[in-house]
Amino acid sequence: MTSADAAPHPEDALGRRAGIVTRVAANALDWFVVFGVWVTAVLGWELFWALVTGGKVGFSSPPAWVSVIGVPLVLFVYLGGAWAATGKTLGKQLVGLRVLRASGQRLKPGRAFLRAALCLFVPGTPGLMWATVSRKNASWQDLMLRTAVVYDWHQREPWLAGRRAVAVARPAREVADGAGVEPERRSA
Question: Chain-centre distance of CA 76, in angstroms?
Fold first, then answer.
């Protein structure tokens, strides 16, 4: 059996730029999280208001202007905070992705929140869909801020200090073709 016949090792994907399918899946999960947070906040407000005024507890839709401001605000804080803290939102954690600088380093808070703002003002469809034609699998936000979304299903970033961080800065096919250092294999 030659090395070309061998099945790819899952660890080889670590640090490679994520494709559109996994990015869309992570974003869909994040929208569910934001929706859940928004509904919880509205219900919490209804409960608080009922306790203060002595009225009935029930779910009533907030005025449209509250939702128009509130939902993007929740999304901005959720995305920016998660990317600044760990590089992972809950959706990215579940799918196994992380947002990093193109150099492989963690995003600083300013860049994380700026990326969150760009995701709000350059909505996902045109911005993210650019990743389907980009050689680097990069969205418009990634190109503007020099960020990358990479495969990383670890809780911590043990691979960032080594060869894996270099893979972020190069197209995935270069890493797959063996450019650079040979990946470490874990024994089964």
Answer: 13
Per the CB < 8 A criterion, the answer to whether 83 and 89 are in contact is: yes
Q: Do 140 and 32 form a contact (C-beta atoms < 8 A)?
A: no
Q: State the DSSP string of 83-106.
A: HHHTS--HHHHHHTEEEEETTSPB
pLDDT, tens only, 61-118: 788 888 889 999 999 999 999 999 999 999 999 999 999 998 888 999 999 999 999 9
Q: Token pair of 41, please?
A: 């906040």
Angle at CA 91, nearest 5°, toward 87 and 97?
Answer: 50
Give dist(CA 70, CA 48) in Å, integer: 17
Six-digit token string for 123 = 């909505």
d(CA 124, CA 29): 14
